[in-house]
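Incident review: delayed structure delivery

Summary: a single-chain prediction request sat in the queue longer than the usual turnaround. Root cause was a stuck worker, restarted by the on-call engineer. No data loss occurred. The affected request and its eventual output are reproduced below so the record is complete for anyone auditing the incident later.

Affected input:
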Amino acid sequence: MKSILLLLPVTSYRNDDFLAAADKLGVQVIPVADYCPQLAPGWGMDALSAVHFDQPLQAAQTILAHLPTAPDAVLAVDDHGLEVAALLREQLGLPGNSVGAVGLTRDKLAFRHLLEAHGFYCPDFRHLPHDTDPAALAPSLRFPVVVKARRLSASRGVVRANNAHEFISAVHRVREIQGRVDRESHELGLVVEAFIPGQEYALEGMLTQGELKVLALFDKPDPLDGPYFEETIYVTPSRLPEALQTQIVEQVARACHLAGLTTGPVHAEMRINAQGVWLLEVAARSIGGLCGRMLRHALGMSLEEVLLRHALNQTLPEVTARGTAGVMMIPIPKRGLYQSVQNLDAARALPHITEIQITVEAGALLLPAPEGASYLGFIFSQADTPQAAEQALRAAHRLLAFEIQTEVPVAAV
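Output delivered after worker restart:
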């Protein structure tokens, strides 16, 4: 029986889907998680359940010291474990992307330098060290700009500023966000770049020996102009002209080659305007959240099964045209404690709606963008046209009524 080591962050939406795919394929899973090291022993968990994914060298050493058997493949299910997975594959002699390539594509500043050096469309950008006063940089900027944390994902720590006052406020806010979740925040600093106008799109692909196979190209029909950039709707196939779709694929493939990515999933984000294709990021991972479920119609299996098959060098499915699919990541409208949702059954019964998953639990603290990195849930649709799939998502979302408690009562003593 083949075995695969899966890096399964506790907060990932996708753990169950990966485990179900492994069970379907008859693959033995060696699970590695990032539960709190102080609490895990008291819960009866072993060392592989309490690994620091944000300390790749230490994490890799811990995992190698406690492996029950050598795996046939190593896979990180999302962004958090990418560098750990690369280190493990290197130590175990398994094929995969290098540590350097993974680190480069996770770092927004390093990726901008790569694009600039090789003639891609690239916005003006600056590195803002942690100890630099943003007021000193503001007079030299041409607004609007976007302030970004260097290694966060899901639009976390990304804020647009239209003037000097907004810029100074955005820097302090993003520094605070990055400082809470990245232990190297002081060394990293932030990225400040010119705002790129245009519509956003995304590409989902798979690299095999450096060759890029496109699994899907997504439209993002909602404008993402700030001040925050929380994503909502994805629809595939794209409505872009074939020539533009070809340009996107060529640009992503070239960026992967220059970054040193050679194998495994690729998720790329880009903006398109009158000048052409502007790459925002190329990540050595698949699409996040539960969004991959929308690709079952084209793949004939779950995206997670495709990822496991590829990691284990098994046959991959052909991508086929089977209508249109869409997903909405239900945005968090305000900070507070989640209570409940109304009209869920009615929304699920709408035409073209195939699934609605509410992923937040009652009593959970909700943080909207740019602090938050999660959603209320996911709405899925399937239709004959992109317009119908998109409209179904919007109709379902309009029906859902979420109760969020913004004031917490304090009992009198």
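Verification: The longest strand covers residues 199-208.
Action items: add queue-age alerting; document worker restart procedure.
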